[in-house]
Amino acid sequence: MATVFVPPQLRDVTGGADRIEASGATVREVIDEFEARFPGIAARLLDGEHLAAGLAVSIDGTLSNRGLQAAIGKDSELHFLPALGGG
Amino acid sequence: MATTPREEHTNRPMRVLGTRPVRHDGADKVTGRAIYGKDVQMANLAHGKILRSPHAHARIRSIDTSAAAKLPGVYACVTSADMPNLVDKMTELGEGTVNLAHLGANVLARGKVLYHGQAVAAVAAANADLAEEALELIKVDYEPLPPVTGVLDAMKDDAPLLHDDVFTNEMGKRANKPSNVARHIVFEQGNIERGLREAEVVIEREFRTATVHQGYIEPHVSTALWNADGHVTIWTATQGAFTARQQTAELLQIPISRVTVVPCEIGGGFGGKISVYLEPVAALLSRKCGRPIKMSMTRAEVFEGTGPTPGSFMRVKLGAAKDGKLTAAQAWLAYDAGAFPGGVIGPGCMCVFSCYDIPNARVDGFDVVLNKPKTAAYRAPGATHAAFACETVVDELAERLGIDPIELRLRNAAKEGTRRVDGEKYPRIGFVETLEAAKASEHYQSPLSGANRGRGVASGFWFNIGLKSSAAANVNPDGSVTLVEGSTDIGGTRTSVAMQLAETLGIAAEDVLPQVGDTDSVGYTDVTGGSRVTFATGLAAYQVGLDILAQLRERAASIWSCDPEKVTSESGVFRANGKSMTFKELAAKLHHTGGAVVGRATVDPQGATNGFGTHIVDVEVDRETGKVTILRYTAVQDTGKAVHPSYVEGQMQGGAVQGIGWALNEEYVFDAQGRMLNPTFLDYRMPTALDVPMIDTIIVEVPNPGHPYGVRGVGETPIVAPPAAIANAIYRAVGVRMRELPMSPPRVCAAILAK
Fold first, then answer.
1. Is residue B672 in some structural domain?
2. Residue A87 included in any domain
3. Taking the CB of residue B111, how many other CB atoms lie within 10 A of it?
4. Chain B residue nearest residue A7, CA to CA
5. Are B499 and B540 found together in one domain?
6. Is the pTM value of this prediction over 0.90?
7. Span B301-354, pLDDT tens digits
8. CATH of residue A28
9. Measured between CB atoms, which of B90, B187, B188 is closest to A53?
10. Residue of A nearest to B271 (CA)
11. Which of B21, B395, B433, B503 lies 20 to 30 Å from B731, alpha-carbon distance?
């Protein structure tokens, strides 16, 4: 199972849990799975069919460029982080 | 330059990488033949100028351009009424999502002006003087509103509100009333209260930094031609031709295929030439009058009308045990975003404690809008502010505990497997190696003597990013290879990318002829930013090389009538069954073996990995004037494989000097009405060659496992450490802790007098 790190500001939806295991194979599947368990969480993470503005997803220590389609391994770590740019 | 021993990432010695060939575009640049945006000329060219707001905050009641339009020689006038009104439409621009309504209003104000110098209307005329004369005839009826330019002031409940539709966003939860605080970010790990209880020493300090500009030498310039067939071509100085194309197409709501962006040579960017300013306006003017329109900014327009880096207020608290081990860290960071939401608070929060392994930490960050130009990325955006605060407190902790400041950093240094406060775990990084190299350096080991002199150290971090790049290359009959890639060349990347292709093919760097293509000539490529080009576009070049080698092995096999699998290629020589041919010999036979060989690649790599640096500086402080003189400066950095060491040194030196500018002189000075008082290089003081000594560099090469040649990003990390290093040096010189940037003579003098 992959481990999703729940940001402090989302823990009001997860009942205080800071890490949650998930079986989805993509970010989209994980969010769908979470929505079934924690109703309302998808609305916090998504703008329509995309990750919410300013949000990025990191998988196993690397910010993914592939948004909701990003693949997740069985033992992956997943974080929702601010999007990064550079100069 | 000194180098430390390195691990080789590849199994064979490198022949091209690590050498210092002459840059491919050098002759054009030193002879003045390179084509910059200002050099673009064409028949019937007209000139555009922008009318800018005289108010920092005002409602626009009406705009009347009729008198300007009647002036002989004026071809067109435009306002935001000529642009589609894009309400809450978001678009993905590679480096992040952008609210098009905000981007559009920053290009031409709609309804309100939110900073002094914001673009309000534009005119195209036969020449620039006439266009400026016409601007004076445009009548704008403003209702002035009270401005707010301080980040803490803007956060107050009774502060003037900039936007009715901006609500504080807390990880998707929206506040129930509008606010200047657009976003609140929280990171947390461990138990901060427990960590503070375990500490022997706890230090909490407050810091402020000024708004500073990237200070690129070339002002913004764009030329647009809206052709009769509806196709728009834009020649511009941009860090990302494809991003400029997308922004323009989205703002004007035309198909992306109707826009071609031709990237000209660029006179610096540092993050400031990613957002569009002139491009859509020049296109609109061209559409109205049918002529090509050239627009260029003055230096004052660059300062007042483009995106600087935020001003900030920061509070940092660190706790450490007697042995120097950090037990707790807490930060409260407020960065201004300028007039529209979406500043660099995110990376600031992720960077503030990124150098250290801290079990208990919490960071609160706030993205705050106020009546200043919309901020933009600037070299490691958000990191320099945060490092100034954290690294100054780390230095104070070291002093309090009686531990050498580099040793204290070593005891807490992040390494592979360390988890940052945002939760990310580091891959193979080289922070420890930079600290060890700094500690062992001749600079750090040599004594510093003399009155009012002091030595400071500080460390810095930047993420580095990957993103998408494309490249294609054609093998010429003379054995040279023409390479077309899509990354604007700001720091010598034509050569660093070409060298990776040369290394892969086993030919000389000089035999690869690199060009930067326009948006119709090369596959999609993200911006030159995030220290990504040598890593990501270099990776594309490597894959182009593999593609070419595979095709050439087939050609050699056809000549030798053997299975392509039997053909080997190494160091530019193809071999099979006892026969051999050099790359050049094989290239000469391509026309008789099936025609041209063209290699291509597009990449979207993960694994850019992070950059760390440690800087050492010696200063002398004039107690009477407060002037700080840099006596000696050494920048140490893990650069991964240094592809072209001269360019790596140049990036480290350039970043250090920009950081020195932040530290000692640079700041936007605003009056009570929010007007910038110093929008010239005479009054906005950037360092010159006379202000700094030679910046010594120590390159540490810890290979990046995510790149076949071990390449890491280099360009941004070196700006991060200088302000803190200099603040720490000033303390050791004259005993005052400086906690506000810039540490200009009046501030240093006041601190000495107050001591």
1. yes
2. no
3. 12
4. B187
5. yes
6. yes
7. 999 999 999 999 999 999 999 999 999 999 999 999 999 999 999 999 999 999
8. 3.10.20.30
9. B90
10. A87
11. B433
